[in-house]
Amino acid sequence: MGRPVPRRSFRRSLGRGSRRFVGGLRVRLVVTFVLVALVSAVTATALAYRDARTAVLQRTQNTAVDDLRERVAAVAAGLDLPPDQRSLSRFAAKVSEGLGARIVVARHQDLSAVSGAYADTEGRITAELRAAVRAGDGARFQRVQWRGDPYLVVGTPVTYADGDRRTSGLEVFMITDLRAERDDTAALLDSVRTGTVPVVVLAALLALLAAGTVLRPVRKLGRATRELAAGDLGSRVAVRGHDELSDLARTFNETADALQASDAEVRAQEAKARRFVADVSHELRTPLAAMTMVATVLEEDAGQLPPDAAHAARTVGAETARLSRLVEDLMEISRFDAGAARLNAAPTDLADTVRASLALRGWTDRVTVELREDVRAVVDRRRVDVIVANLVGNALRHGAPPVTVTLAAPGGDRVTLEVADHGPGLPPEARERVFDRFYKADTARTRDTAEDSGRGGGQDGGQSIDQGVDRGFDQGVGQGSGLGMAIAWENARLHGGTIEVGQGPQGGAVFTLRLPLRHPEEEGDG
C-alpha cells in the first residue's frame, strides 16, 4: 500500500478547474450568441441598404427617363431643323420647364445650349454617354460623381417622326441631382445601424438566459462531482426532463451508485483484512512469548552446545525475535489503518531525543550528529524515537559510513531532521516506493547480510546477532520486517509532518523529516 494522495489539494484543484470550465462555457455561449446576432444584423443591414438604394435609384432613373422622353416629344415638334443657337437655347428652356430643377442640355452638331444659368455641364456628361446617345439606340442614363456629389445624367436622341425613325442630329441630356436620394439611403442605413445595437444587447440577454438554463444543471453536476471527489459518495443530482443533460445526470447518478456500492464493499473487505491481521497478530503473541523464552534459554546455554547446535540455537533466537518484531509492527500498522493511533504529545527537546535514541541502540559511535540545541517541539517522544531509529537504522544497514544526523530549525514553524549516508543511494524508482509496506530496495544485499550473520557459526556469529537484538530490534523498530519505513512515514504523518527522500551531493540517500514545532490540534486549541 503506497502513500495516500492528499485529497484536499485534489478537491481544491478540481473546484478551480470546474469553475473555470463553467465560466468559460458561459462566455463562449454569450460570445456565440452575440456574434450570430451581429452577423445577422450586419447581413440584414447590408441587404436592406442594397435593396433600398437600388429601389430608390431605379425609381429615380425610370422617372427621369420617362419625363425626358415626354418633354422632348412635346417640344421637338415645333423645332425647325437645323436649329440656330437661339432656337436651340429656346428649345432647351422649354424642355426644362416641365422637369423642375433639372438641367437640360441640347446639342446639335457644334451648337450647344443649356437651360437656366448652368454653364459647367461638361464634367457631368461623359464621353461614353454621348457616344451611346449618338448611336441612336434610344434613351441612355449614367450615374456620375461630380465634385463629390452624385448625379444622374439621361440622354436621348431626337428622331424624325417618319417610319424609319432616323436621327435628326439633335441630342438632349438631362442632369438630375441625386443628393436627396443619397441622403435618404444614408438615413436608412443609419437607422438600421442604430437598430443593430439593441439587437445585439437583446441577443446578449437571451444568451445569458440560455446559458443560465443550460449551465444550471451543469453547475449542479459539477457541485455533485466535487462532493463525490471529496468523499461524499451519497451526492446525487436531480434528473429532470429527457434531454442530453438529463441523460448525463442519470449516468452520473448510476456511476455514483456503483462507486458507493464498490466503496462499501472495499471498506468492508479492508475492515475484515485489518481485523484478520490484528487477530492473527494478537493470537501469535502468546506462542511467540513461549518460543522467545525457550530461545532465550537455548541461547544462554549455546556456549555449552556443539558448534552446529549452538549455531542453530542462535539462529532460532534471532528468527524468533524477528518474528516478534514483525507481529508488533503488524499490530502497529493495523492501529494506523484503523485510525486508532493517537499522539501523546508534549513539549520535547528534540536534540536530547535524538541523542537518547542513538545511545539506546549503541549507535553513538557510528553516527555523526550535528544537532541544534534548544529546539523544542510538541511531539510524541516515543514516536519520534521510532522515526529516528528507522531512518538511522536504514542508513546503517543499507548505506555506507559516515552516517550524519542533522537537526535544524530553518525558520518558520517547522523543524527538520536529516539523515544522510554515503552509500550507493536509491534509484528514482526506489525513492517512489521506499515508504511502501514490505518494499525492499536492495533485497539481495539484505538477504546476503542475514545469511552471513546466520552462517557466522561459533561465538562470533552469535555475538553479531545478539548485538543486533540488544541494540535495536527489541525497541519497537521495524528494522528487518519490511514495515519500518512505512511505520516511520505514518508516525510523521500523524504529527502533521512529512518524510522526503533524495540524493546527496556526494551520493548516498538523504531522508529529511519535517515536523511542525506545534501540533495542529494544539494550535487549534490555542
Task: Write structural notes for this entry.
The chain is of the alpha+beta class and 526 residues long. 59% of the residues lie in helices and 16% in strands. Helix 5 runs antiparallel to helix 6 and helix 6 packs parallel to helix 11. The longest helix is centred in the first third of the chain and has 70 residues. The chain is rod-shaped.
Give the structural class.
alpha+beta
Q: Span between N and C termini? A: 35 Å
Largest sheet: 5 strands, antiparallel
Percent in helix: 55-70%
Total DSSP E strands: 12
Strand order of the largest sheet: 2-1-5-4-3
Radius of gyration: 51 Å
Question: Which percent range describes the beta-strand content?
Answer: 15-25%
Secondary-structure element sequence?
HHEEHEEEHHHEHEEHEEHHHHEEH
Globular, elongated, flat, extended or rod-shaped: what is the shape? rod-shaped
* Low-pLDDT runs: 1-22, 443-479
Mean pLDDT figure: 77
Query: How many helices in DSSP terms?
Result: 13
Question: Summarize this, please?
Answer:
With 526 residues, this protein is α+β, with helices and mostly antiparallel strands.
Summary tags:
single chain, 526 residues, alpha+beta, 13 helices
List the helices and strands and how they pair.
Blueprint: H1 7-76, H2 85-97, E1 103-108, E2 111-114, H3 127-134, E3 140-146, E4 149-159, E5 167-177, H4 179-229, H5 244-300, H6 307-337, E6 346-349, H7 350-360, E7 367-371, E8 376-379, H8 381-398, E9 403-411, E10 414-420, H9 428-433, H10 443-455, H11 458-473, H12 484-494, E11 498-503, E12 509-516, H13 520-525
Parallel strand pairs: 7-9
Antiparallel strand pairs: 1-2, 1-5, 3-4, 4-5, 6-8, 9-10, 10-12, 11-12
Helix pairs in contact: 1-2, 1-4, 4-5, 5-6, 6-11, 6-12, 7-8, 8-12, 10-11
